[in-house]
């Protein structure tokens, strides 16, 4: 008989090969492929006929269980979750380092504990004293909030048996290790073992589970992709360190919608929810200034007014500058070309153009094209757009204004905030919209002069 060929297997993902390689061909990890001996012959598993309630039934005979949401006390977080926490649900919260994940979950734990429910907060990254200092600063000192600083999975499960919490928070899943799996904490095998064990315990006890997840340099969740499939809800915590505004959005939600966005603000006393962020992205100037225009952006189901500012300066440099902040540079370049070719703004290519948003918000949807075009045209002609005017619409290369999603919702939000003049797809073309905005600015300027004299 021929001698069986040795098999080499990856200790992280289980990938196998007939010869040794330095890098796994599946998970791309270095130094994880070791010899595992000859492959065992595959056998067909013995069939087991289920009995009782485990037998397959027609779908119409299956009882529909009503899954109730329990509010956490933070309205913006409940909005993203679909109404609150569900018994046995596993929720993964990811975000950049320092964005405020631990602060948000500590506030959630304190709010839930203040209602009389027992909460266990397991910190695997910070000591108990460090978490206690943050809780004292943010006012999260509640008798029903239990704190533990552990990195061993077995010890964490022991705390769960001893405390018997109604909510479990683990910060974070990449820093907890299991003795049943090889490798260092954070490696794919460890993350898979820790997450699957915690989720299994949460399902058996009907215990809501909140997990903190790290992200890689490209913004994806660290660890195996299986982690996102195991949990019920995946939330992403977004924000810029230079601004205090934070957004929580659901990328996956088995118990609610995935198009809701929660808005928060980081303060010295912790994190505070912002139920109505309408005024965060608008300037405070009472007099009309050239180069500004308001658009209505859509964050999930929420319509937010955002002010776009532009500055156009003549330059002698052979290559004029194009500096943008909060908007897509390629779309700004396209809008400049359309304005010069279709809207009659000649020689705009000989000017430095600066475009920015107010409040640090980022506009990635094409609905902001029309507001950017009007702001640039206002800066070129040095004529201010009136405060009561708002614009939203996508601009095509032919100079046409195309309709955008949720146009009625955008218009209703703009009118609620006092914007009585709207420029959208009804304007027809970008040239007509620019001229209409300029005529409105002339009328407003004439009224201001009449009032002054």
From TrEMBL:
Gene3D superfamilies noted in UniProt: 3.30.230.10, P-loop containing nucleotide triphosphate hydrolases
GO molecular function: ATP binding; ATP-dependent DNA damage sensor activity; damaged DNA binding; hydrolase activity; zinc ion binding
Residues in the signal sequence: none
Biological process (GO), any one: recombinational repair
Residues that bind ATP: 95-102
Gene Ontology CC annotations of this record: cytosol
Top-level taxon in the UniProt lineage: Bacteria
SUPFAM superfamilies referenced in this protein's UniProt entry, alphabetically: P-loop containing nucleoside triphosphate hydrolases, Ribosomal protein S5 domain 2-like
Short motif RadA KNRFG motif, span: 252-256
Region of interest (Lon-protease-like), residue spans: 352-453
Pfam families linked: AAA_25 (PF13481), ChlI (PF13541), Zn_ribbon_LapB (PF18073)
CDD domains: RadA_SMS_N
Keywords: ATP-binding, DNA damage, DNA repair, DNA-binding, Hydrolase, Metal-binding, Nucleotide-binding, Stress response, Zinc, Zinc-finger
Domain observations: The middle region has homology to RecA with ATPase motifs including the RadA KNRFG motif, while the C-terminus is homologous to Lon protease.
Name of the protein: DNA repair protein RadA
